[in-house]
Amino acid sequence: MQSTTPTFKSFKAFYPYYLKEHRNVTCRRLHFIGSTLVLAVSAIALIKQQYSLLWLLPVIGYGFAWVGHFFFEKNRPATFKHPFYSLWGDWVMFKDILIGKIKF
Question: Is residue 1 predicted with pLDDT exceeding 80?
Fold first, then answer.
């Protein structure tokens, strides 16, 4: 696993690094599944007004992502050093997968 992470002054500078850390298609798929489930659970919690379900969001989102990193990508998630950029990157990559810009 990598031990050093560069610093970034903008998300625009961070995103190419983020994509480099997500080369493995299985890792990207796990991120996408986790993000999709986060959206689904959020919708269910809001529609049914079962707000206690919201505690599942970080477990689902990070759980799928971290399995992808530790077992398939074999690197340390950027979340540990760049939590906000990493979360932003998750959703930009999700969008990029949806529109076909990134292979799924």
Answer: no
